[in-house]
Amino acid sequence: MKSKLLQLNNCSWSVSALGEQALLIKPKQDDVSLQLIHESCRIIGESSIPGVVDIIPAYESIAIIYDRVLNDLGSEIDILSNAFRHISAENHSPQKHVIPVCYELGLDWEEVENYTGMEKARIIQIHLAGAYTVAMMGFLPGFLYLSGLNEEIACPRKQEPRSRIPTGAVGIGGKQTGVYSLESPGGWQIIGRTPLSFFDARKDPPTEVRAGNQVVFERITEKEFFKLKDRET
Amino acid sequence: MGSLEVLDGGLLTTIQDGGRFGYRQYGVPVSGAMDDYAYRLANQLVGNASDLPVLEMTLNGGRYRFNSDAVIAMTGADMHPKINGEDISLNTSLEIKSGDVISFDYCQTGCRSYLAIRGQLDIKEVLGSCSTYLTGKFGGFEGRALREGDVLSWTESEGSSIPERVPEDRFPYYSSKVELRILEGPEWSWLSQHQKEQFLNTEFDVSPDSNRMGIRLKGDSIKPTDHQMVSGPVIPGTIQLPENGRPIIIMKDGQAVGGYPRIAKIADADLWRAGQLWSGVQLTFRKINREEANKLSAFQKNLLYSE
């Protein structure tokens, strides 16, 4: 596939097509940080590039989706380069969110304890001590993929995915932790539940959380969970 | 205001439009009509703007009673539509009288039909679109499929003209043997020559567990690649190759990011055909280049919009 270099956020990116109406851009360096991806997404978003309808951040790449067919990648790269020239690449300090979690409402404690060889109290302590970054929101609306999990409590996904995971479930999937924003099927190990909702289609934007934001967890009791849950709904 | 009452919502009838754009960064799929060609044709036939919401029916459309006169058109898979028991034609505009009952049966080829009503359906936009997103339970009619007792209303429109006739060569055609043209995906080069040939020479069956999120294929499985993939963006039409070697085509309600190699992508000009795939279809792929794909897109646009 045709490839040409693009300069963005003090980094060279390769550009290729993702079908007729989308570009896939990837930093040309070995260690791609999530911060580079998210900061660059912000820059692309603020660049008001004609015809761009969606920007999808992922771990090591970004898709830019247009409402038109891209006939010539070379000229699209020139348009992008020009747009970026007017946007500052200075870092914004990421927004922080505190997510209350009731660990008593976890569903898979036995499996997680067995796998990690640690007791529940210790696992909770480690989970609470972590500082996490919202890596991306995919899979489902508002599903938060959080990177930064202490590897000591990493845990493989369930052999047999659950057909129903409740809203707000907090889980561990491999080296990530995350929050299920909607009731859905899923294979992560559920260790707790938050009463907060991270997705509301009636609001625009539907969530206050963005890829690149920082997250810490705060422990709450079951009583507090239901009190907060009532207030949410 | 015109209105109709749902007597039977069929197997899965939802409201869909041109799609929900601008929210994929939050994990919200684009949604919208699975067969974009038939969908736009339906609107065109009743003199609507091509991206207004319509009813998308799956396999069997159900029954509906009109409480007012209306101009309607049906396109897509042939579900043998009838008005008060009398057969009616697809791909043409029809006048409905208040009290008329329109009914559908199972279709043989294709799986989705579109019913457009002249005017604007009274559906509230959610995040910029009227499309129903079933998993998220939002959009369309209360975020769900239509069912008995639901009443849909619309504002009648004046002005724009109804085409007297659309030439037959613009009608979509569905078959139980389908060839879809594809472009190379970002991970196409991960496949060995043998795997590539296998992919392009296999006649796949469409699995019955396909839906608006994705179309799953059966057939001789392809040896998976040894490379490990870091989750990357996917769009409708992206063909992923999971570890079991059976390709999945991401469709309109599909996720924004996926973790399997994106070996190919259905050409935009053929994506509407993919939206009609159902169990029993024999599917093959043919690789084309970008230039050809862009030409096909332009040709299709002309076909749909030229007078």
Automatic annotation (TrEMBL), chain A:
InterPro entries: CT_C_D, Cyclophilin-like_dom_sf, PxpB. SMART domains: AHS1. Residues 13-209 form the Carboxyltransferase domain. SUPFAM superfamilies: Cyclophilin-like, PH0987 N-terminal domain-like. GO terms for molecular function: 5-oxoprolinase (ATP-hydrolyzing) activity; ATP binding. It is an enzyme of class 3 (hydrolase). Its EC number is 3.5.2.9. The chain crosses the membrane at residues 126-146. Keywords: ATP-binding, Hydrolase, Membrane, Nucleotide-binding, Transmembrane, Transmembrane helix. It holds the Pfam family CT_C_D. This is 5-oxoprolinase subunit PxpB. The gene is pxpB.
UniProtKB/TrEMBL annotation, chain B:
GO terms for molecular function: ATP binding; hydrolase activity. Pfam families: CT_A_B. SMART domains: AHS2. Signal peptide: none annotated. It comes from the Bacteria. Residues 25-303 form the Carboxyltransferase domain. Gene3D superfamilies: Cyclophilin-like. This is Biotin-dependent carboxyltransferase family protein. It comes from Gracilimonas sediminicola.
